[in-house]
Amino acid sequence: MTPYHLLDFTNSDTITMCKTMSDRDIGGFSKAALDQVPATPSEPAHIRFHGNISIDLPPDRPQVHRSGYAAWRNKDRGPTIFGKSLWDVDPYLFLALRVKSDGRKYFVNVQTESVEYTDIHQHRLYAQRPGEWETLLISWADFVRTNYGQVVEPQNEMLTQKVRTLGIGLTDRVPGPFGLCVSGMWATNRLEDGDTHKKKS
């Protein structure tokens, strides 16, 4: 089966479909940005997710007890004549990502048309060669259902027929700069798409 391209960042228009988030939304001080990087003889065109993590708490918001995160995801896509624009990745076993990581603790985030709108299915992005381009595979079945950062039960099977958003977050709460490059995300059944098969901690 032909791989199903979901977010292709070799196309410079794709970045306009995405948005960043961070603890600045609740008064924190982390910074996050997405930049489009053109192709070179040694690298594909890609986006660079970068910024700076701060764990400082906003002094004027005593209800905020935790900060230090940044993320990006695609925006909700506009409706079609058939209803919401959703990805159906049910025929595929894996999510593939072409990335160049700095080695920090990133998580891949997937939102579906879940019963709980705020549910996020997460999986660690296990970069094997920080500083180098690599293609990683994650089984859709290995994502863990979370809500507001906490694992929740029951661990219902992900609605892979109705995927709404894809993205990547950094929640290691280690102060300092970060940078992750991504050239594409796609659904596939081919193990050979990956440089190394997904590993568990």
Protein model, in words:
With 201 residues, the protein is an all-beta fold. The protein has no helices and 13 strands. The strands form 2 sheets. A 7-stranded antiparallel beta sheet has the order 2-5-12-7-8-10-11, with no helix packed on it. Strands 1, 3, 4, 6, 9 and 13 form a 6-stranded antiparallel beta sheet that branches. A hairpin with a 6-residue loop joins strand 7 and strand 8 (119-124). The protein is globular. The relative contact order is 0.26.
> Secondary-structure element sequence?
EEEEEEEEEEEEE
Strand percentage: 35-45%
Strand arrangement within the widest β-sheet reads 2-5-12-7-8-10-11
Helix content: under 10%
Please supply descriptive tags for the structure shown above.
201 residues; globular; seven-stranded antiparallel β-sheet; single chain; mainly beta
Summarize the topology.
Elements: E1 4-8, E2 18-22, E3 31-37, E4 46-53, E5 70-74, E6 94-100, E7 106-112, E8 119-124, E9 133-139, E10 144-147, E11 150-151, E12 163-170, E13 176-188
Antiparallel strand pairs: 1-13, 2-5, 3-4, 4-13, 5-12, 6-9, 6-13, 7-8, 7-12, 8-10, 10-11
Task: Give a quick rundown of the structure.
The chain is an all-beta fold and 201 residues long. It is built from no helices and 13 strands.
